[in-house]
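thread: overnight batch results

M.L. [08:02]
morning all. the overnight job finished for the chain we discussed friday. pasting input first so we're all looking at the same thing
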Amino acid sequence: MISKSYRRKESVAIIKPNPPYMITPHLRKFTLKDKPTPCIYDNLSRTCMRLVTWGVKEEVAYEVTVISEGWKPLIRIRVFKGSLETAVRIIEHVLNVKYMYPDISLLINACPGLREVVERYPGLRPALNPSVWESLVKTIVNQQIPIHLALRIISKLVEYLGRKITIDNSRRIFYDFPTPEAILNAGVDELRGMGLSRRKAEYLTGIAEAIVKRGYNIERIGKLIPQEAIEELMTFRGIGPWTAKLAYMAYTGNLNLLLSEDLSVNRGLRLANCRKKFMIDVADYVGLISYLAAILYERVSHNH
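M.L. [08:03]
and the structure it wrote out:
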């Protein structure tokens, strides 16, 4: 892992997402306390700090704070390295700020069982990954294991193989996700030592080798239409429909794909009591409904 120190040079910006908007429940679920994934998220201050280097023109180290959510959302950005313009563009993407949320009544009408979730979390949407590469690696790690275990593995990958920088030699460390070169150089055995199965380690090094040694441009997949992107991703060993679809959605924010391959989604959809005759009205939001249905299932499961 490469580590460097930089003198502090800070820029600040404020973003006002269109309401309703909510993101912190997702950040809480997909991060670890005091551990980089690569975002280090503090639940009390609702602040995430990270470094982004792969797939961007310049390195950006930022801290983003969700000041308020729901019907009066407000986000503050502090940039410690890189331009404010680049940071805002990355954060608007990662925090899924520009997603146009459907009318909540439309969702409830189509799936009455979602009422509790959409009213409790107005505007809730998934956060996104800043690159196709990061999205694909995280999705592969998540295959067939509990999320808490996947997060621990991801955190180890970030800590040991990702780039990190400090500002003014302080304790503030900004982490980035490992590059394809870092994954390839680590090799299968080192990846296994971080908790990955042999097969998953082979999947990741195989994709990394295609990028590093054969010049494969994985980021262009994010510009393809869904079916083309999914078909291309599935040409890689270890990537089936669930992995391809979720990786694509978690980068592009395209939420008009139904994640029918996911067990939690299917169970949640049954609880949501979605009515076929009204589903045509929310055809462009079936991915969002999949996401909310999974949350509904988790809430019901935890209550029991």
